[in-house]
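2024-03-11 09:14:02 DEBUG pipeline.ingest accepted 1 chain
2024-03-11 09:14:02 DEBUG pipeline.ingest length=124
2024-03-11 09:14:03 DEBUG pipeline.predict start
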Amino acid sequence: MTGASPDGSPWSGASASPWSRPAATGETGPAPAGSSGQPGAGGWPASNAAAGGYPGPPPTTPPPPGWRPPMHVQPAPPRRLPPQDMAAMDQGEQQAQRLTYGIGAVAGVVLVILMCLLCSRVIF
């Protein structure tokens, strides 16, 4: 392996891994656009920003007590639903059940006839 050091690791010695963290030097990267560099500029605490760590979210101010978003349209009150005819619903369900059973019976008879025809052709 070319460029490998005597201990066998290609990243030991003078060359550093491209994925390693840079050495801590007292410098930080370029200042963000619009920051004045003064402590606490833009609402950010200066102590964490100078250390290079994440300073956290900017501080927020709570809304005044009792504040609510403005309401422009009042919704209409809900309307009453029509009464349900339970006897008619039961009758409709029974008719649907009879239709389903009838279609299933017809399909079953057709399948039995087909099986009988196929089996008779195989045997004879």
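2024-03-11 09:14:41 DEBUG pipeline.report Residues 98-124 form one domain.
2024-03-11 09:14:41 DEBUG pipeline.predict end
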